[in-house]
Design brief:
Blueprint (H helix, E strand, L loop, with lengths): L2 H14 L4 E6 L3 H17 L2 E8 L6 H17 L3 H4 L8 H6 L6 E5 L51 E8 L10 H19 L5 E2 L4 H13 L4 H4 L5 E2 L2 E2 L8 H11 L10 H18 L3 H30 E2 L2 E3 H4 L4 H14 L9 H12 L7 E3 L2 E6 L2 E6 L2
Parallel strand pairs: 1-2, 1-5, 2-4, 5-7
Antiparallel strand pairs: 3-4, 6-7, 8-9, 9-12, 10-11, 11-12
Helix pairs in contact: 1-2, 2-9, 7-10, 7-11, 11-13, 13-14
Amino acid sequence: MSQSFKTAYNLVAQTTENHSDVVVACSGGADSLALAAVTYRVSHKQNFHLYVAIVDHQLQPESTEVAERTKKMFENLWLGQDKTASKKVSHKRSKLEERHSAIPPFRHTILSKNSDPVTPSTTIDANADSIAADTFSDAESTLSTSEAGSLIPNFDVLQQNSSCIVKVLSAQVQRNSKLGVEAEARKVRYQALQEFAESVNSDCVLLGHTENDQAETVLLGLLRGSGLKSISGMPAQRGIFYRPFLSGVTRADTEKICQELGWEYWNDPMEGLRGQVRHQLLPEFAKVAGKPLVSNLANTALILQEADQALDIIAEKLMRYLYQDSKLKASALKDQPAGIRKRIYASILKSVKSEEQDIVRAHLDGIDQLVIDWHGQQAIQVPNFNVFRNEGYIYFEKSV
């Protein structure tokens, strides 16, 4: 067992230890495949129900084929070792079966050691009688470098208190969205995962982003001239979504785990600016900065996140004091640092349901002029709102 697998195992175990139902988002790439394999192993120890959600964005001609191939990989891992013995084990209903009656009809495969493999083309009713209820016991809570063993779980040790289900979720992406294809794909992906997690009562969805993804996000923010929030990259947790590999696991690690499993992973033909950052900019930077570049950028993201969170807390406390009855007291805000003032404006606009992606620096600068350089100027036009000053207060009025 490689050090890459052990590191990944420990990070996942720390993330999932207080959850009973865990969803792993999978695209067929090395990162998410490795995450699913590692999480499956962790589930043996922590005894949670595991769901692997394979998201098919249908953006590439081969996306459906990739989804089906990925599903087959999981079948081979979890069913391939003991197909004959599985026929001798009787099915037992568990509490999990009751919950499955509420699962919407996603296209999925049920994996069970107690049943024959389900073919990739089969659509299973959410009320299917056989629910995977098998797991394997491991002695470790974490894996040390001195421990050894197969990456493939031991099917000889069987318990009836855990499960794994694999589903394919189809995400319809609007190519003409004003968000852009990449942002639109991200939006519908998270919506599909959120809905699926709710359907299985899960409050933990694992995403396979690695240090490489974090490094790319930091550079993208810099190239786009973005603010601190963007440059600080992705958070390790946001709501029910967790990224255990974001600090400590690289793409090279996930590829190594897949190679050890004998899994063929899909290389996403990333296009656009992110593709250029991944395939051109980062490799060139690494030649100058040396090997730790990816980890260094990921560490920079962590430092910036801490600073960003501190500023948010300060701005939030001040906003509660100065923003009351839908109006902001300008005189008390004038002497605050510009960064705090503009965070307050952005927070107010977000709270009153303005389109956050349409708010740009020019809008915040315009509002700021109403505070620091008031001379009777007209209202500032912000998406869905008019912002104006009257009798020492800044008002945020919804436009008709």
